[in-house]
Amino acid sequence: MSLETGLNQAWRAIVDDAAIFPPGNAPLHEATAAYGARTAAEGADLVGSFVLKDTDLPLVRGVQMPLSVVVTGGAGQLAGPVELGHRLGLHLAGLEIALRDLDDLAGNARRVVAALSQVEDDLPVFVELPQAPLSSGWLAAADVVAEAELSLKFRTGGLDASAYPSVETLAGWIDASLDRETAFKCTAGLHNAVRHTGEDGFEHHGFLNVLLATRRAFDGAPIEEVVALLDQRSPEALVAAATDQDLAGARRWFTSFGSCSVIEPWDDLRQLGLI
Predict the structure, then answer these.
(1) Residues 6+ apart with CB under 8 A from 52
(2) In Å, how far from its chain's centre is CA 217?
(3) pLDDT band at residue 230 using 50, 70 and 90 as cut-offs
C-alpha cells in the first residue's frame, strides 16, 4: 500500500470536533457554524463527528452534522438523549459515557449495558474507563464492555499534569483493548501528531504515536516496543515508521480522538508530509 493512499485513509474522520470543550471553550453556535463551514483545504475530511453534551441537544435543533453525545449523568440517562435527538431530527453518531463508580467499575459497566437495552437505536457507544493503571477492577470493566460489543474511551490529557497518563499506562490501555478485540477512542490532549513537552509544561501524547503504537500492538509487538513508540519524540523517526505500516488498518481499533482544535492536527500532518 502506498504512503499516499494508506495515510489518506488513515486520517479520514480521525478528529472528533470538540471545540466547545476545554481548553477551547468555543460558544456552541460558533462551533457548529465553523464545523459546517470548514472546507477540504481547512481539514474538513479530517473531521468526523461534532462532540457535545446531552444537555446541549435542545440548542442544536436542525443542525445537519453527525453528533457524538457525551452523557453527563449515569446509566439511567442513556435513553433520554437518543429519544430527544430523534425527536429533534438530529443525526446522532454515538454516545459516550464515563464510569463513575470507582469501587465497582464492572458493576457500573453492567448497569450501562442494561440501560442500553432500553435504547431504541443501535448507536456506537464508548465507555470511558478511569485514568488509572491497569487493575483487576479496570480489566473486569473492560471485559463487560467487550462482551457487550461496546467500545472504550481513554482520556489522554486535560487541564493539569495528572490528566496525562504515562506512556506505560496508555500502552497498557491499548494492549487491554486489543486483547479484547475492542475499539477505542481517545479524548483530550492529542492536538499534535508527535509526543512533546507543551508550553504548559505537561508531557503531551501525539496522535501519530498512538496510531503507530496501536498498529504495532495489533501486530503482536511486545509491550516494550509499544511504550517506546508512544514515547518517541522524533518526527523523522515516526514518519519513517509510518511509511512501513498499514495505519489505515489500525483505525479499526483506534477510531478517533476528540480535539478542541482541528487546525493543529491538520497543520501537523501537512508539515510532516503525511497529507
Answers:
(1) 20, 28, 60, 67, 68, 69, 70
(2) 17
(3) very high
Q: Which residues contact 270 (CB under 8 A, 6 or more apart)?
A: none
Dihedral pair phi/psi, residue 42, rounded to 5°: -105, 10
- Let me know if 218 is exposed, middle or buried by CB neighbors in 10 A (0-12, 13-18, 19+): buried
3-state SS, residue 139 = helix
Query: Predicted confidence band at 27 (pLDDT cuts at 50, 70, 90)?
Result: very high
Phi, psi of 208 (to 5 degrees): -70, -40
Residue 164 has pLDDT above 90, yes or no: yes
State how far the Cα of 144 lies from the Cα of 120, in Å rounded to an integer. Answer: 21
Per-residue pLDDT at 122: 87
How many angstroms separate the CA atoms of 20 and 23, rounded? 8
Q: Express the helix, strand and coil content of the chain in percent, nearest 5 each.
A: 45, 15, 35
Cell numbers 448507536 correspond to 123
> Please, is 117 exposed, middle or buried when counting C-beta atoms within 10 Å of its C-beta (0-12, 13-18, 19+)?
exposed
Chain centroid to Cα 231, Å, comes to 19
Q: Which domains does the chain have, with CATH numbers?
A: 3-271 (3.20.20.70)
Cell matching residue 204: 503531551
Q: Write the pLDDT tens digit of every residue in 245-273.
A: 999 999 999 999 999 999 999 999 999 99
Q: Where are the alpha helices (DSSP H) in 148-202?
A: 167-179
**What does the alpha-carbon distance between residue 69 and residue 102 come to, in Å, rounded to a whole number?**
22
Half-sphere exposure (CA, 13 Å, Cβ side) for 97?
28
Nearest-angstrom CA–CA distance, 137 and 216: 26
Rg (CA), the chain: 18
